[in-house]
Design goal:
With about 220 residues, the chain is mainly alpha-helical. A two-stranded antiparallel ribbon has the order 1-2. It has eleven helices and two strands, in the order αααααααααααββ. A hairpin with a 5-residue loop joins strand 1 and strand 2.
Length: about 220
């Protein structure tokens, strides 16, 4: 049994197969492997989507995607990708770390509203130095003692679910299988105050109604 830890290497002691699958997300993806993901070549060259699809620069004007938009890499690269992009992509502040580091829930709990408002670099420095390039890891999606699925982003997805009258603690296994991924795989909006400072995260389906009840058995 492992102790609570952010480092996937610690998890590998109890879950070697799962760890090896996570490690594979560090590997380059050969171009053309999938029509849905062009990926990276053997030299790890980044594919610039704005150069390939120039109209996207117009569609995303005013968004970070309109400044730089590269083909995404695997979970292990989530934070590294932020360190390598145009700094303008990080102008919203620490909120941009929400889906990039397993430390995001802890940082939000410690800093409160300042987690969202502070400059990205200031919040990033609060991550332990050895993990400042650690992307999405085991603890983001799993309970350390059982590998059961968990919603780690209670301050984003959990809050949005409760707004729909859904108790995150009462989700069934099939719902969890979707929502654990949905806590990061979503194009959410960043809420701003009158000074254009970030104050939170808003999911596109917030304020609607629960739409997956048909999955219940």
């Amino acid at each position: 049994m492992i102790a609570v830890d952010y480092d996937p290497v610690i998890w590998s002691v109890s879950y070697p197969v799962h760890y090896e699958r996570w490690k594979k997300t560090e590997q380059p993806t050969a171009p053309g492997k999938s029509k849905y993901k062009r990926g990276f070549d053997s030299d790890n060259i980044t594919y610039d989507k704005l150069s390939e699809f120039p109209y996207m620069a117009l569609l995303f004007q005013g968004w970070g995607f309109g400044v730089e938009y590269n083909e995404p890499r695997g979970h292990a690269h989530m934070l590294r990708d932020q360190l390598e992009i145009d700094p303008a992509r990080l102008s919203a502040g620490g909120v941009c770390l929400t889906c990039k580091t397993p430390y995001a829930p802890r940082l939000e709990q410690e800093l409160g509203i300042e987690y969202y408002r502070l400059p990205w670099q200031d919040v990033h420095k609060r991550i332990p130095e050895k993990h400042r390039e650690l992307g999405v890891a085991c603890i983001d999606c799993h309970q350390e003692r059982s590998m059961a699925l968990r919603i780690s982003r209670g301050f984003t997805l959990g809050k949005a679910l409760r707004g729909l009258g859904i108790d995150p603690e009462k989700l069934n296994r099939q719902e969890m299988g979707t929502l654990v991924c949905a806590q990061c795989h979503v194009t959410y909006s960043i809420v701003k105050d009158g000074d254009k400072k970030s104050t939170g995260v808003y999911f596109p389906w917030q304020g609607s109604s629960w739409g997956i009840s048909r999955w219940r058995t």
